Amino acid sequence: MLKTNQFSVLGILGLPDSDRIQVITLSDLECDYLNATNCCDKLNKWVLVEAIAQCVLAVLLLLTGHWILFLMYAPVTAWLVYKLVNKPSGDIGMYDPTEIHNRQQLKTYMKENLIKMGSHLIFFFIFLYWMTISLLNLTKSAKAVEPMFPPVGLVTFELNAQKGQEQNRLLNNDMHV
Predict the structure, then answer these.
(1) Got the DSSP string for 22-87?
(2) CA Rg, the chain, in Å?
(3) Which of 69, 76, 140, 151 has its CA 20 to 30 Å from the CA of residue 121?
(4) Which segments cross the bilayer (predicted)?
(5) In sequence order, what DSSP letters do the residues of 77-114 get, joined into one string?
(6) pTM reported for the whole predicted model
């Protein structure tokens, strides 16, 4: 069964990727490779998926008692939920094609996505660290299992030690005679 840390790492793997796609799409719009309608359609598809993934990860952290990680992760999730809830009523999504070029919104969206991507990458490494720690603690608590075949270095060391003991025994026998 997967633990919360493993769920967190699996879940957070996709979030920087969705942010990367959003940044690339916004830069394509900035360079006029895409029109505003196509760009906003692509971006609005990712917003709900990202919000659900972040909320699920935050709830998992809360339910499993990882309070410090939850407190670190909650502001990013709360900010995204706030943006979704407080979008203007006439807009078709978080990104509206009629207003994306107004009042430097394109630059603002680009900065927001870069900040989200940076925070998701930081959380990815934090979750990966905690997963590694929990796996190390799991292996320490498990019983030590003898390997089926000892490592090569250990075999040669044991053989050399046995030869040395045999030579010492022969030398000691020769001295006593």
Answers:
(1) HHHHHHHHHTTSS-HHHHHHHHHHHHHHHHHHHHHHHHHHHHTT-HHHHHHHHHHHHHHHHHHHTS
(2) 29
(3) 140
(4) 51-74, 117-138
(5) HHHHHHHHHTS-TTSSSSS-TTTTTGGGHHHHHHHHHH
(6) 0.66
Alpha carbon distance 174, 6 (integer Å):
64
Tens digit of each residue's pLDDT (9 = 90 or more) over 109-129? 888 888 888 888 888 888 888
Nearest to 7 by CA among 62, 77, 45, 89: 62
Residue 39 near residue 55, CB atoms below 8 Å: no
Distance CA 137, CA 145 (A): 16
Q: Is 152 helix (H, G, I), strand (E, B) or coil?
A: helix
Please state, in angstroms and rounded to a whole number, the distance separating the CA atoms of residues 123 and 15.
Answer: 10
The predicted-structure confidence for 17-71, as pLDDT tens digits, reads as follows 677 778 888 888 788 788 888 888 888 888 888 888 888 888 888 888 888 888 8
Count the Cβ atoms, other than its own, within 10 Å of residue 47: 18
> How many residues in the chain?
177
What dihedral do alpha carbons 69, 70, 71, 73 form, nearest 10°? Answer: 80
